[in-house]
Sequence to fold (82 residues):
Amino acid sequence: MISDTTIASTVKSALATDPRVGAMDITVYSHHGRVQLSGDVTSADQMSAAEEIAREVPGVVDVLNNLRLVRVSARHGVLEEV
Fold:
């Protein structure tokens, strides 16, 4: 059986190296192979890609996608939930 620590770090690495995602703002938790993704992304495509990537990692049995879609406000330079 693959440990949750290994699963979480493998998912994080896979997200960070995938050009569709760029996972620096994504936090990954794993418990009994169930992965939770949380954090901010700037497109629905990133959100879908992150979940797809996580599901492909060995040992992952389910993915809870709690990513939040945000945009950067040109006026204030801050993230706003979409």
